[in-house]
Amino acid sequence: MSGSNAYYTLFNHGGPHVDAPNHMGVGDGLDSYPIEAFAGPVKVFDASRYPLDRSVPATVFQGHVDAGDIVLILTRYTSPQTDDALPELRTLTHEAAEFLATLPVRAYGTDAFSVDSLTDTKMPSIHQSFLSRTIQVYEQLFNVDKLLGKGKMFFSGAPLKIKGGDGMIVRPVVFVY
Length: 177
Prior knowledge:
Distance between the termini: 44 Å
Order of helices and strands: EEEEEHEHEEEE
Number of strands: 10
Radius of gyration: 16 Å
Largest sheet: 8 strands, mixed
């Protein structure tokens, strides 16, 4: 009989991943969530026409999002051209984050490097708006553009259940029906 074993070192916030409240020091880890918290109906919005920085307004979502939805935005994020440049992102305005968080949505996600602006640190954190209310945040998602204009969709993005984990890579799946 033969077999193979391997050891891996994972960076829990690289590539498609989900953040937990303790990532920002405002609550528990991913292991505190029931598995159902990582799946649900999803709504996808194209935010790529908005300027870079905190520009995606609440009006994008008003009348289109219900409590319990998972909300994803397409920003058409591109990596910086130099190693020393900060990523420039399209992110929600504080009002948009608060609107979604107080519905409340089940989770919020983006194809961008982060849900927060890395260049405008004066405004309240988008992470805080969601994570302080135990709403998961998904970042660096792939193929969000392929979901635009689809009918009903169901998202599943469960992480490994690591005690106290402040984030974990995921392999999200969206079922279109």
